[in-house]
Amino acid sequence: MSTNFYPPLNLKVITPKLELRGATDELLAQLLPIVRAGVVTRPPDPFDDPMSLYADNPLRERKWLQAIWRGRGNVHPDSWRLYFVVMLNGQAVGMQDLIGVNFDTCRTVTSFSWLAPSARQQGLGREMRAAILHLAFEGFGAGQANSEAFFDNSASNRVSESMGYQPNGTDWATRRGEPAVLNRWRLGREDWEPNRRSDIELIGVEECRAVLSIE
Asked: Which InterPro entries does this chain map to (predicted)?
């Protein structure tokens, strides 16, 4: 897919450890073997989601791609989702998404991510979150970032807590069709500002802001 006609595919967020690149079809193809193998290796199970990251779902690859393609075409001032492939030493190892929630009025975002099992326990989860928050706050002028994780997903909850998010209640979601409690987290711009980083580079933001109707 040509990136010239869809500026979000030209977006890059570069940190000293990794890069987030707009999820072109070419980069998604690099992730297909990971999706095919499944990224769920042990509890806790993740969300039931069109990403279909369970290895026992025979339609996972098709559902995963279709969800991303639909998301590209479903962009409105109040609702959008940007998809990034996480690149580590030139290799695709996961995804990091940024989702605009009533962004035109509330300036609120949330995030979603996953990593290949081989890329875990290297501090990349925190680095990915720092990168996407820099894009949200510095690049797009967000006022608040939200995150959710199941109560027993200690890794994701630790990342949110370590980055200054504050507890914001609980909710429910399903995994493998069964309900489970979600921890909700909130990071206001006033909490992000004191810890903002100076070593993260943003590329292609202005062109993307126009597509998302961000003034």
From this structure: Acyl_CoA_acyltransferase, GNAT_dom, Ribosomal_N-acetyltransferase
